[in-house]
Amino acid sequence: MSRNPSASPFTVIAHRGGSGHAPENTLLALDTGIKMGAHWLECDVQLHEGALLLMHDLRLERTTNGKGRLADLPLAELRRLDAGKGQQIPTLEEVLDLVDQRAGMNIELKTWNGTAAAVAKVLREYVAQGWPLDKLMVSSFHLPELYEFRQIAPEIPIGVLLCGVPLDWAGCAVELGAVSLNVSDEFLDERLLADAHARGLKVYVYTVNHPEEIARMKAMGVDGIFTNYPERALG
Question: Is the pTM above the cut of 0.85?
Answer without folding.
Answer: yes
